[in-house]
Each structure stands twice: as C-alpha cells, then as structure tokens.
Amino acid sequence: MSPTTGTTAVDTTTPDTVSTTGPAPAPSSAESTATSAASPPAGASPETQRHVRSTAARIRRVTHRLPSLLVSGATKSAAIVALLLLWETAPRLGLVDRTFLPPFSEVARAWWELAVDGQLADNARASLVRSFSGFGLAVLVAVPLGLLIGWYRPVADLLGPLLEVFRNTAALALLPVFVLLLGIGETSKISIVLYACTWPILLNTISAVRGVDPTLLKLAKSMDLSAPRLFQKVILPSAVPVVFTGIRLAGAVSILVLVAAEMIGAKAGLGYLINASQYNFAIPQMYAGIVTISAIGVAFNQLLVAVERRLSTWRLPSDG
C-alpha cells in the first residue's frame, strides 16, 4: 500500500533474464563452424585473433563458392561422361562392331591389366623421356631465337626465307630423313620432336615481340630506358602470353609426333604399344594406349597452363 494514496503499487520492472521476443533461431552448421572459428580464445594475442578471423573468412568463402564449383565441375565433365556412355552402349547395342570398337569397360580392364604387369608404365616412361627431351630442347632453342628475330630486323631479313622453307615442311615428311641420318635409336626420335616443336614456339615468339603495344614502347623510350632494360621490362612481360600459346601447341605436337615416330623401329613407347597391339589384334590394349596418350596430353597442357598463370600474375588483379 502507498502511504499517501492508499493504493497498491505495482512493480512494472522486468527481470533481465526474461526475454520478450522469443527464442532465437539456431544457426546453420556452416555458420556455426565459421562463427566458432571467428571467436578467438580469451586472452589470445592480436596475431592469433587475426589468424582466426582470416581462417573464418576463408571458410565462409569456400562455403559460399562450393555450390558454384560443383555445378561448374559437373558442366565441364558432362561431355566426357556422355562420350564414355556412348562408347559403352554403342558396341553393346550393335550400333558398331565390338570387334573393332570394344566397350569402354573392356578397354578399362585392358588398361588395368597393362598397368598391373608394368607394361604401361615402362612404355609411358620411354615416351615421356623422349617427348620431354625434345620439347625442352625446342623451348631452349626457339624462345631466344624468336626473341632475337622479332626484335632485330636484320636477323629477321637474314633468316626469314630459310624459316619459310622449313616451317612449311611437315615433320613426319622428314621422319625417314632423320632415321637415315641418325639411325632408329633415341637420337632420331628426340630430334624429330625437337624439329616439330620448334616451329610453334618460334613463330609465336616472333609474333609476340612484334605485337607489343607501340604506346608502351614510346612511353618506355620517353623514360630513357636502355635497350636491355626496355627488353626486360616491356618486351618480355608483354610477350609471355603469346609465347606460352606456342609452347602449349608444341606440348601437344611433342606427343603426337613422337607416337608416329615410335611406330617405326621402336622397341618401347606408347606408339610401339599401339602398333604392336594392332598387329596382334589386341584391340582393347590398343585403345588403352590411345586413352593413355590423351590423358598425358591433357595433364601436360594443364601443367603448362599453371606455369603460364604463375608467370603472368602481373596481368591479374590482386585479391586485396
């Protein structure tokens, strides 16, 4: 009772422990993981707190990008899966003669048998050594020569007619010449790969040097850069993408030309495996060798793409 009014006083204050808005919704598992990662332990140093927060930010980015990455992966692999399904079903349905095109499952079984007994590894190793040797020598020869021809006009005028003659001569057309001059051993096979890989790298390098933006050259010359510095700071960075286009083309050529060279007088290699399987009518083993060559070519191309991105990071915007 109030002593002055005689009425009962009502306490309208609400305890702090009572909530008037109802229970909060439970966070999702991904949000809970990110939230727990974003909460550094009590008394942690500032460096630890920054590390924990950056880890939580990376987790959130990966969580948000995961659906798009899955969709992108499914889209890129759809055509390959469709091809394999067609390869498997067409022989079984009688659309093609399975004697000459066995189902993919039989090819996969033959591939596994070759891998288990070591034949596939031995032949692939022999081919890769020859291919990478010729390809590497071509890069070491063609890139400096292309830079020289593209930068110095007198050198281009001197070597231009000779290059036009050889660039229009197919490498496989010269294969008998290489065999006659160098024998049927490793030297002739590496040399034919070197010859075939030189032209894509050389021509793309020349085009890259001559295609540098003239505005960049004028700007660099206005800064009184010396010729070596101009070449290092302007020409080379601008030429990297086009040069790597030629290198990637040469990577594919190195595999294809070598397989054809190994079908003549070789005792090991994927080309030898394919040729021997054809003569022995081991058709699944023949297709297993072809699939292996395709897989090696794709892997080699992806490796070159990764190297190109590494050397061309200056062209990409930073992540901040």
Give the helices and strands, then pairings.
Layout lengths: L28 H10 L7 H47 L11 H13 L2 H33 L1 H15 L7 H8 L3 H25 L3 H9 L4 H36 L7 H10 L3 H29 L9
What does this structure look like?
It is a single chain. This protein is mainly α. Helices cover 73% and strands 0% of the residues. It has 11 helices and no strands. It has helices spanning 29-38, 46-92, 104-116, 119-151, 153-167, 175-182, 186-210, 214-222, 227-262, 270-279, 283-311. Helix 4 (119-151) runs antiparallel to helix 5 (153-167), helix 4 (119-151) crosses helix 10 and helix 9 (227-262) packs antiparallel against helix 11. The longest helix is centred in the N-terminal third of the chain and has 47 residues, at 46-92. It is flat. The termini are far apart. Residues 1-38 and 316-320 have low confidence and may be disordered.
| Rg from alpha-carbon coordinates | 33 Å
Low-confidence stretches: 1-38, 316-320
Structural class estimated from helices and strands: mainly alpha
Number of helices: 11
Described by strand count, sense and barrel closure, the largest sheet is: none
* Overall morphology: flat
What is the overall pLDDT average?
77
Separation of the first and last Cα atoms: 68 Å
The strand count comes to: 0
- State which percent range the strand residues make up: under 5%
Order of helices and strands: HHHHHHHHHHH
Which assembly state applies to the chains in this document? single chain
Helix content: over 70%
Quick summary of this structure?
The protein has helices at residues 29-38, 46-92, 104-116, 119-151, 153-167, 175-182, 186-210, 214-222, 227-262, 270-279, 283-311. It is mostly helical and 320 residues long.
